[in-house]
TrEMBL record:
<dbReference type="InterPro" id="IPR053772">
    <property type="entry name" value="At1g61320/At1g61330-like"/>
</dbReference>
<dbReference type="Pfam" id="PF23622">
    <property type="entry name" value="LRR_At1g61320_AtMIF1"/>
</dbReference>
<dbReference type="InterPro" id="IPR055357">
    <property type="entry name" value="LRR_At1g61320_AtMIF1"/>
</dbReference>
<feature type="domain" description="F-box">
    <location>
        <begin position="65"/>
        <end position="105"/>
    </location>
</feature>
<dbReference type="InterPro" id="IPR032675">
    <property type="entry name" value="LRR_dom_sf"/>
</dbReference>
<dbReference type="InterPro" id="IPR001810">
    <property type="entry name" value="F-box_dom"/>
</dbReference>
<feature type="region of interest" description="Disordered">
    <location>
        <begin position="20"/>
        <end position="57"/>
    </location>
</feature>
<dbReference type="InterPro" id="IPR036047">
    <property type="entry name" value="F-box-like_dom_sf"/>
</dbReference>
<dbReference type="Pfam" id="PF00646">
    <property type="entry name" value="F-box"/>
</dbReference>
<feature type="domain" description="F-box">
    <location>
        <begin position="411"/>
        <end position="451"/>
    </location>
</feature>
<protein>
    <recommendedName>
        <fullName>F-box domain-containing protein</fullName>
    </recommendedName>
</protein>
Length: 694
């Protein structure tokens, strides 16, 4: 058995992890990537509050491996898990003292910004970081991230300087200091980067602080990426920094308002990406670096001297009146351009039929859209020209009144329909607002995404009732102008308080949109136990035959033996759904193409029987179903199994083919060590979280 990663434990919590996840347990039901196991977060009553404290560490018996292997395993763990492993195992204690990845943020330290006042949060943050670093040698740190979200005051400078003195040593590769309070009064100590400590840094990220490098700066010979946001630095100081960063490949500067003239020296032979946004005092950018192939800029009054432009392949410009210049000049000065994105206000409406005709074919066939800002009748316009279909704005979702007949490159109608179908829904609606060429394809746009985010509704700016009213109004407005034909994907996420009166709206939207041909249906009511009964009749009469992915959360779902659809269903995700085992059995018996089944927090299921008819089922995941007493699997080809629960009897049937196992279950480690090698000999990926383990 090849178990790739390691044990991670605290106060009896043991986790054997097969692979690290960027964001644990995202409840989106999307299990693409067969071997990706998500481990639900457990209530952490006491999981090693003393991050990094090894007092009372138990000598947990773990498989015998060379010390350098365990050190590598430990280095791959998230910092909190690494600290917890050191709490309970002497095997990990020595490697914790030189753990390479230190991430100090409210999220990483488990501090909820909503649970504390600003001063209390700051105090807890400083205390926890101090506690951890007192037990860390400072040796071997490769990546240091410090994100201070609480109110930052001058008194924090001594803490921050002390942390940097401990952790920034020769060998460090990434240094991220992000003070999220605007204009935090912190002066980054440049002396830290001298005497060899900065020679190994490859990525330097600073935000909301002062930074004053001088000609005496000697480090940063390995720096390849530099990111400065709201940093108080002058052009001379930046020049000193750049002159000592000859390996630099990517430079990004945002909202640094003390820079008046940005000169990029020819010494930066490796620089390929230059991005400058929102530097209001900037009057001149003069680039002499010879190999810049990506340039992005936002600003109106800055003079641009970009030097050699033949090699530029990607250009992004947010600049008033730039479209005319782009049409006139870019084909000759940037003939190798492959990706172009322009946003321009106060632009006269250009005739676009012959625009950019001398550009490469890949760019000439790019989407050319004219969309109005805020209101269809305003004089300001935004022209977006991009083959990457950049998302951007117009609040007239789905409203074609006053659509202008914008002239766009001549392409067959099916090509334009395809381009339109690939746009995010809001942009597709906006295109239909201003161009009759897109209006007909909008009436059968295939991807409908109805959520507060998609509509630009700020949950903090509206009361719950007002937000719900705006949401219902916008969806109604769009669907009245949509034929309901051709919908491939329908996603409805209602974040506002859902009440019974919303059922009529929701049923009406489903009647319009769920037609034969639909492939994905996602209904997510985020209010716990929302009183909505999903209409199973919707899936009959051919409307459900084409659905490949069905995602339901926080509703009732009562399929019966008369259900006739879902013959194409490959992925089923149910979260907090009120459904019984008999109803689920009816559903599964009509879903013979099912490949992935995930069930979360469905507390009306007592016995889950997976029939042998599901020959294609490869992934079975069940989490948090408290009333569940038995899982009996007869599907013969399940290779991925994930489960959370203590009292459920598991009858997994044939286990020889299981390659990936995730278990969150008390006392399971002993069983795993004793039984798994014989009953699951082909196991490749194993993740275990176990409490109350001997």
């Amino acid at each position: 058995m090849d178990v790739n990663h390691a044990s991670c434990a605290a106060d009896g919590l043991i986790a054997l992890r097969a692979k690290r996840k960027g964001s644990p347990c995202q409840q989106d039901g999307d299990s693409q990537g067969a071997a990706d196991i998500e481990i639900p977060s457990l209530p952490e009553g006491s999981p090693c509050q003393q991050d990094g404290d090894s007092q009372g560490a138990a000598d947990i018996e773990i498989p015998s491996l060379p010390e350098d292997i365990w050190r590598l395993i430990h280095s791959l763990m998230p910092m909190r898990d690494a600290a917890r492993a050191a709490c309970v195992s002497h095997s990990f204690l020595s490697s914790w003292r030189c753990h390479p990845n230190l991430n100090f943020s409210s999220e990483a330290l488990g501090l909820s910004k909503n649970a504390y006042g600003n001063e209390e949060l700051a105090g807890l943050f400083y205390s926890k970081v101090n506690h951890i670093l007192k037990r860390h040698s400072g040796i071997g740190v490769k990546k240091l991230t410090i994100k201070v979200y609480s109110d930052y005051s001058g008194k924090g400078s001594s803490y921050l300087n002390n942390w940097l003195q401990i952790a920034v040593k020769p060998g460090i590769e990434e240094l991220i200091i992000a003070l999220t309070q605007f204009q935090a009064k912190y002066n980054f100590p440049c002396s830290l980067l001298s005497n060899g400590s900065g020679d190994s840094i490859q990525y330097l990220h600073l935000s909301n602080c002062s930074f004053h490098p001088t000609v005496t700066l000697s480090g940063l010979r390995s720096l390849t990426r530099l990111y400065l946001c709201r940093v108080r630095i002058t052009e001379n100081e930046l020049g000193c920094l750049l002159s000592h960063s000859l390996a630099l490949e990517q430079l990004e500067i945002r909202y640094c308002n003390r820079i008046v003239c940005l000169k990029v020296p020819c010494l930066l032979q490796r620089l390929i990406s230059l991005k400058v946004f929102g530097c209001d005092k900037l009057k001149l950018i003069e680039n002499e670096a010879p190999n810049v192939s990506m340039f992005a800029f936002q600003g109106d009054k800055t003079e641009l001297k970009l030097g050699e432009t033949l090699q530029i392949k990607s250009l992004c410009m947010v600049r008033s009146g730039y479209v005319y210049h782009a049409r006139a000049e870019l084909p000759s000065i940037m003939p190798n351009l492959e990706s172009l994105a322009l946003k321009s206000c106060k632009e006269a409406h250009p005739a676009l039929a012959d625009s950019f005709t001398s550009m490469p074919v890949s760019l000439h066939l790019a989407l050319v859209l004219l969309s109005m800002c805020e209101d269809i009748d305003t004089a300001a316009a935004t022209l977006i020209i991009t083959h990457q279909l950049h998302g951007s704005p117009c609040q007239q979702d789905g409203d074609s009144q006053g659509a202008a007949d914008i002239e766009i490159p001549s392409l067959p109608e099916d090509i334009w329909r395809l381009i339109h179908s690939l746009m995010p829904m809001r942009d597709a609606a906006r295109a239909a607002c201003v161009s009759r060429s897109f209006l007909s394809s909008w009436r059968c746009h295939p991807n409908l995404n109805f959520s507060s985010e998609a509509f630009g509704l700020n949950k903090n700016a509206c009361g719950k009732e007002e937000l719900a009213g705006l949401f219902y109004s916008k969806v109604d407005h769009i669907l009245k102008r949509h034929s309901g034909i051709g919908v491939k994907k329908l996603k409805i996420q209602i974040y506002s308080d859902y009440s019974g009166k919303g059922s009529s709206y929701l049923n009406n939207w489903l009647q319009i949109s769920v037609k034969p041909g639909i492939e994905e249906l996602i209904i997510s009511l985020t209010q716990f136990q929302a009183k909505y009964n999903f209409p199973c009749s919707l899936l009959s009469n051919g409307s459900g035959d084409s659905i490949q992915y069905l995602h339901l959360s926080n509703c009732s779902f009562h399929p019966t033996v008369t259900l006739s659809g879902l013959r194409s269903l490959m992925r089923l995700y149910l979260c907090c759904v009120r459904i019984t085992e008999n109803e689920l059995g009816c559903l599964l018996s009509h879903s013979l193409a099912l490949e992935q089944l995930e069930i979360r927090y469905c507390d009306r299921i007592v016995c889950l029987k997976v029939p042998c008819l599901l020959q294609r089922l490869i992934s079975l995941k069940v989490f948090g179903c408290d009333k569940l007493k038995l899982i009996e699997n007869e599907a013969p080809n399940v290779s991925i199994f994930a489960f959370q629960g203590d009292k459920t009897e598991l009858k997994l049937g044939e286990t020889l083919q299981i390659k990936s196992l995730c278990m969150v279950r008390s006392g399971y480690v002993y069983h795993a060590r004793a039984e798994l090698p014989s009953i699951m000999p082909n196991l490749e990926s194993l993740a275990i979280k176990s409490r109350k383990e001997v």
